[in-house]
Amino acid sequence: MNRAQFLRLGVAAATGAGVLAAPAAAALPVPAPQGDDVGYLSFGAVAELTSLAWYRRALRARGFSAGERRRLTAAATAKRAHIQRINAALGPDALRPGDFAPSFSSSSLASRDRAVALGREVEDLLVGVYLNGAAFARDSATRLLIGRLLAYDAQQLAWLRGLMGGLAGAGLPSPATLEQAGARLDALITTPSFDNSREDDRP
Amino acid sequence: MRLRAVLALAAALVLAAPAAAQAFTVYGAASLSAALPQIDNSPRYNFAGSNQLQLQIERGAPADVFASASPAEAQALFRAGRCSRPVTFATNVLVLVTPRSNPAGLRSVYGLRGGNHRLAVGTAGVPIGAYTRQLLRRMQLTSILTTNTVSLEPNVNSIVAKVGLGSADAGFAYVSDWKAAAARLHRINLPTWAQPPVRYQMCAVRRPGADTANANRFMARVLASRGRAVLARFGFGVPPRG
């Protein structure tokens, strides 16, 4: 781990520790995203949904132990909660069922190793964008929300790295702009399929 | 008694005459102006921004079918009892279009962050404008609406015309619009993750004298295999059957 990675890990750990020490969720301030804050949360919603889709697919894949499956199930539950929290903050910009239906190429899930690599990549994107959001979101409550999401997803990233045989604490990814992260996310998923289960009155 | 019956018949004929004289009319989103006549060329068409058409129908315009570029307009008419339950019949994707020669040398939407470009964007009320703003919010690019010289257009056809003529360096439009004018326009794709869900919905207008039978026939034609094939040929997505 080089110095930059060590410093980033330190910042993230401090953020995570602060967040984890925060009072119960009921007492948290309500995020009111301002300006570009919406971008961090919108990307977070889409990438968390992609991550949720991956955990669900991984649970159907072979090669995971019983303990790993329990962790995958718990992560899927956490991801659903993340999406709900982000959507609550996004209000009218919230991601709705059917807005985005990510799917993966079958080759990216052909083996346990490939599947884990894909899941790690998605968590890597989330952590990268959340690092940026935790630093630059204008609204303090939005920053706090992003910090809490970051704390959980950093743990998941470390766990997936561990599954790949890497060191769980081998530093955090670099903070990612939406331009960088968006291009990487687009490359990971196949074109979202259309879902007409909802015929609501958006945009 | 007989005189009363004759008068009633005469009155009925007089009232029925204007309705019969009116052609069956489809009010459609501007982005459908190339595709719908290829599916059925018999109706009289009125193409414009969906929000404008909604307003006209609310004021009693003689529409029989309304096909909007987003659910908002059709659903509002349905809630007001002015049309049948809307059905989704097509989808679309947003792209950035430039003149074919791309004189500003834009390679990505992020190139607009530098400012000083001429940009054609739909007004906030028209679906293409609402979708564009939603996409820009997601991409943290709303600032490009202030750092560039923006012309606000009432519908997507105006955006395409302006860009095609070189009066704008770039504009946000649907991929189907680019496809219809590919000889004049260059396309720059926008990220999949940031795309808003673009859904077209149509409904049969409820008003006195509406041609409901023809409206239902028209909608069935659009939803049938041939209609779906035409929409797909023009670059629209089509929802799964069911």
* Terminal residue distance of chain B: 54 Å
Enumerate how many helices of chain B there are, as a single number: 10
**Percent strand of chain A:** under 5%
What's the N-to-C terminus distance of chain A?
Answer: 45 Å
The CATH architecture term of chain A is Up-down Bundle
How does this structure look, described?
The complex is a heterodimer of chains A (203) and B (242). Chain A is 63% helix and 0% strand. By secondary structure, chain A is mainly α. Chain A has a single domain (3-17, 41-188), classed as Ferritin (Up-down Bundle). In chain A, helix 2 runs antiparallel to helix 4 (112-136). Chain A is globular and about 45 Å long. Chain B has helices at residues 2-21, 36-39, 50-58, 71-79, 127-138, 144-147, 156-164, 175-180, 212-223, 225-233; strands at 25-29, 44-48, 65-68, 87-92, 94-99, 118-122, 149-153, 170-174, 185-189, 198-204. In chain B, 48% of the residues are buried. Chain B has a five-stranded mixed β-sheet, sandwiched between helices. A five-stranded mixed β-sheet of chain B has the order 7-6-8-5-9. Chain B is elongated, with a radius of gyration of 21 Å. Helix content of chain B is 39%, strand content 22%. In chain B, helix 3 (50-58) runs parallel beside helix 4. By secondary structure, chain B is of the alpha/beta class. Chain B has ten helices and ten strands. Chain B folds into two domains: 24-91 and 197-233, D-Maltodextrin-Binding Protein, domain 2, CATH 3.40.190; 94-189, Periplasmic binding protein-like II (D-Maltodextrin-Binding Protein, domain 2). The interface between A and B is medium-sized, with 30 and 32 residues.
